[in-house]
Amino acid sequence: MNRLMNKRGLAVLSILAVLVTVIAIPTMGTDDDYETLTLVGIESAILNDNIAIAQAELALDLAEEELDEAEDNKGSSGSSVIETSKNRRYYPKEADMNRYIAEQDLQDTIQAEVLSGTELYYNYVLLIKEISIKNDTLLRLEDELAGVVRKIELGLATDNDRTAKELEIANTEYELMLLQDEKTTLFLDMNLALQQDLATVLVIEEVDIPFEQYKEADLDEALEFLLVTDQTLYGLEKQQELDEILLDIYEDNNRRDAYDSNIIIQENAIEQADLEIADRILNIEYQLRSKYNEVLNGYDTVQIRLLELENLKLQQEILTKRFDVGYETENTVKAAEESTAAGELALMQAKLDYYVAIESFENFID
After folding, report:
1. Computed from CA positions of residues 134, 140, 143, 144, in that sequence, does the dihedral angle turn out positive or negative?
2. Angle at 12 between CA 24 and CA 34, to 5 degrees
3. Distance CA 359, CA 112 (A)
4. What is the tens place of the pLDDT at every residue in 187-209?
5. DSSP for 65-88?
6. In what order do the strands lie in the sheet with 201-207?
7. Per-residue model confidence as pLDDT tens digits over 102-151
8. Burial class (CB within 10 angstroms; exposed 0-12, middle 13-18, buried 19+) of 70
9. Shortest CA distance to 115 belongs to which of 2, 230, 6?
10. What pTM did the predictor assign?
């Protein structure tokens, strides 16, 4: 399976910074169903057991067999003079084109599946943090509700105050339920990605999300490279060449106008290919610039989240100092801590989005 392992497919192995936190995914599994999962582990499992990759490998194997067969039949006679000419001039080139496309499909599939699994892993780590924040919020709100009840008993609050707080708690419980449902879905998705029993309980090692400013890209150079290596463009250009070969074959053997209709079909196909090639070239440049803009915007978002987090930490520090001298309540400080934790989560999400944008851009131009 390692035949076409792209170097970027293994890039994640060098960026792991494993922390001490371990997250267990509670499921219906037994104690014997536990499995520790790391980023390295999920990538390894995807590379070895992923169905999409296996299908792409099979397609490449078949394409290579068809190429070998076409080469073997290159000098053989066909059922007609047209088929004999195709055996010599057309089928080997067609099979070689299909083999190249299958090879690129496998590489693209490996990159996409590894990135998908990595993103899935990071998303679960973020979700666990979000659930923790929401639980802290719920505990604080319940404490605040108890305080409202005491104030009602002293005549310092009304039933409306209690109803408002109870509604706030109900909304938080509902949000927490949605997060738990999302966690269950992510758990199932991970086991599907790993091609294992859906009831397996995964123990997740929390990791830092990698962050490093991406180098400035030379888009003109990247575009020039893509116009030579893009799989879709290659297929369109090669198919046009094949249509031209067929046109020559039909014209060379068009005695008594026997292949007039075939000639017209091939001429139309060649003209249509010109339009499709031009459209693909525009599409390549559009995707290139769009994906790079996502990288630039992702970096800007990270910087914004950093500033927001600094402000939240400053507010928390101020409120803590006010609490120390009796000017704020403990719940006010807890709320500030929750806001800071949410800010940290937002920063982690921004870093993840930036990481995915970089990987997507690199996969596109690689």
Report:
1. negative
2. 20
3. 9
4. 888 888 887 888 777 778 778 89
5. HHHHHHHHTTTS--SSHHHHHIII
6. 18-24, 201-207, 34-37
7. 999 999 999 999 999 999 999 999 999 999 999 999 999 999 999 999 99
8. buried
9. 6
10. 0.85
